[in-house]
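Records of this kind hold a single protein each, on a pair of labelled lines. With that in mind, the following record should read easily:
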Amino acid sequence: CEGRGEANESPIGYIPKANALNMEGLDLAPGTVEYLLGVEREIWIEELNGLVPFFKKFGERLPKEIMDEHQATLGRLNRYY
């Protein structure tokens, strides 16, 4: 949050590296944090596609920037993997 941690760039933005997070006091199985910080392309695409009917309810009132970012995220997910 203060710009000091390490992060990996992903199609959905920057995700902190597992070793950049304070895990003190947590009893997690090995690999759990890495799994939780992962981006599952198919799930993200399914979720983003599921937003389209919701967006359509707003018609012309939906800010263009929201749909632009939605499409940009889909594009990054398709190019990234």
